[in-house]
Amino acid sequence: MNRPLRTTAATVRRQPRNADTRQRLLDAGLAVFAAEGFRKATIQEISRRAGANIAAVSYYFGDKAGLYAAVFESAERQANDEDPWPLAGDGPPEQRLHAHIAGFLARLLDRDRRAVLAQLLAREMVEPTPALDRLVRRRMRSNHDHVATIIRELLGADADAETVRLCTLSVVAQCVFYRNSAPIVARLYPDLDPPAHLTQLADHITAFSLAAIRAQRAERAT
Amino acid sequence: MNRPLRTTAATVRRQPRNADTRQRLLDAGLAVFAAEGFRKATIQEISRRAGANIAAVSYYFGDKAGLYAAVFESAERQANDEDPWPLAGDGPPEQRLHAHIAGFLARLLDRDRRAVLAQLLAREMVEPTPALDRLVRRRMRSNHDHVATIIRELLGADADAETVRLCTLSVVAQCVFYRNSAPIVARLYPDLDPPAHLTQLADHITAFSLAAIRAQRAERAT
DNA sequence: GACCGGATCAAACGCGCATTTCAAACTGGC
DNA sequence: GCCAGTTTGAAATGCGCGTTTGATCCGGTC
C-alpha cells in the first residue's frame, strides 16, 4: 500500500536534514531496480522508500531512466571502491585461478549488498541498456583479461588465442551459471543452496577447469 | 466468462470458419513475448501481428497472462513434438555426450524458430512464472538426468552423487552461457558470432568437460 | 424465414504511473 | 529582515495499455 502521506504526516516525518535526498534515492533505487527490474519498478515506490517526494526523481535525475543510469553507475563505482579485485599476479597460476573464482562466486552469490550489482547485471542480460556497455568497458574487460592471462600461463605461452578464449569463457560460464540460472538449479535440486556452498563450488570449478586446461596443454604437446 | 467450447464434436464440425485466430494469436504472441518480454509486449502489437482484434485475446485466453501461459505451453509442446531429444543411450558415453551438447547448443543458439523457446526461457530466469515450474518438471528434468547418466558412466559407477551433480552442472553451464550471457560475450568479443560456430563450440565444450571428468575419475582412483 | 450462439469488431472505460506544475519551505549572503 | 537560489511538497496532467462493452456478422438448426 503506497498511499501518499498526508500533509501532517509529512511534516512529522521530517528526516535529518542532511541525509542527502539524492543519495537516499540512489540507495532506494538500487534496491528496487534490482528486485523488480526497470519496468516493474515504480518511482513512487522508490521515492517512498527514500522518504522523498516523487518530484525529487525528476529534479535530480531528469527521469526514471536517468535515475537508473545513475544508480547503475553509483553501484558500480561503490563496488569498485570498497571491494576492489585483486588483479595483482603473484603466486602459481593454479592458486590465482582459485582465488579469482572464489572471489567471483562471492560477488555473484553473496546474500548481502555485494551481489546486488550482479542482480542488476543479470537483468541487463535480457534487456541491455547503455549502462551495460560502460560496465563491460570499465570493469569486466579487465577482470576477463586477468583470467585469460592466468589461463594462458597454464596452457603454455604458445597456446593460440582461440583456445585461450574458449577456456576462459568455460571458466566464467561455470561461475555465472549459478546466478543467472539459479531458478533452474533451485527447481532441479530444491534442497540445494549454492550461496551456502561457496567454497565447495569454488573448489569444484577450479579443479574441473584446471584438469581440462592441463589436458588441452598435454594434447597440444603431442 | 465466455470461453470457446473445448474441442468436442461441435467445434470440429464448424471449423471451415476462420477458427485459426486462436492459433495465429499463439504464434504472434510467441514472437512478441520472446522479443520483448511479458511486460513490454503489448496485446495491441500481438493482435495486430495476428491480424486479429484486440478483444480476441480476452475472448480466447481471458487476459494477457493467460495468453502468455498458453503461448509458453504451446511452444513447449511444439518443440517436444517436432524436435524430440534423442534420449536413447547407445554408443560410447563420450560420443553421446558430444551429441547431446551439440543438440543442446543448437536449441539454444539456432537462429530460427527452435531457439525461441530458449529465449522465452531466458526471460523466465529473471522473472519466473508458474510456466517455469511446469517446463522444468516436464521437459528439463529428463534432459538433465540424461546428461547425469552419461557423466556417471564416465566417472565410474562408484562416483558419489555430489560429484556427478557438480560435473553435470558444469557441462550445462558452459552451454547455457553462450545464450544467457550473450550480451557480454558480444561486447567482449565484438567480432565473434557464436551461432556461426556451433560445431566448434560443441567440440570445445565436449573436450574440455571430458578431460575434466576423466581427471576426477583418475584422482578418485588414487 | 426466424432464431441461436459463437466469433469479430470498433469504441470506450479505467487504472497505473511517469512526468509536470507551481506554490511553499528552506538556505546562505547581504 | 529581505532576497535569490535551491530544495521539497501535494496535486494535476497526460498517456499507454489491459480490459470491457455492446453491436454486428455469420453458419447451422428448427
What does the model show?
The structure is a homodimer of 222-residue chains. Chain A is mostly helical. Chain A is built from 11 helices and no strands. Chain A has helices at 7-12, 21-36, 43-50, 55-61, 64-82, 93-109, 116-124, 130-155, 161-180, 182-188, 198-221. Chain A is elongated, with a radius of gyration of 21 Å. The N and C termini of chain A lie far apart (69 Å). Chains A and B meet through helix 7, helix 8, helix 9, helix 10 and helix 11 of A and helix 7, helix 8, helix 9, helix 10 and helix 11 of B. Chain B binds a DNA duplex (30 and 30 nucleotides) through residues 2, 4-5, 13-14, 16-19, 21, 42-44, 52-59, 63-64.
Termini separation of chain A: 69 Å
The largest chain-to-chain contact, stated as pair and per-chain residue counts, equals: A-B, 48 and 48 residues
Order of helices and strands of chain A: HHHHHHHHHHH
Strand-residue proportion of chain A:
under 5%
The stretches of 5 or more residues of chain A where confidence is low (pLDDT under 50) are: 1-18
Rounded Rg of chain A = 21 Å
What is the mean pLDDT of chain A?
A: 89
**What structural class is derived from the secondary structure elements of chain A?**
mainly alpha
Principal-axes shape call of chain A: elongated
Keywords:
homodimer; 222 residues; mainly alpha; 72% helix; elongated; disordered N terminus; DNA-binding
List the helices and strands and how they pair.
The structure is a homodimer.
Chain A: H1 7-12, H2 21-36, H3 43-50, H4 55-61, H5 64-82, H6 93-109, H7 116-124, H8 130-155, H9 161-180, H10 182-188, H11 198-221
Helix pairs in contact in A: 2-3, 2-5, 2-7, 4-5, 5-8, 6-8, 6-9, 6-11, 8-9, 9-11
Chain B binds a DNA duplex (30 and 30 nucleotides) through helix 4.
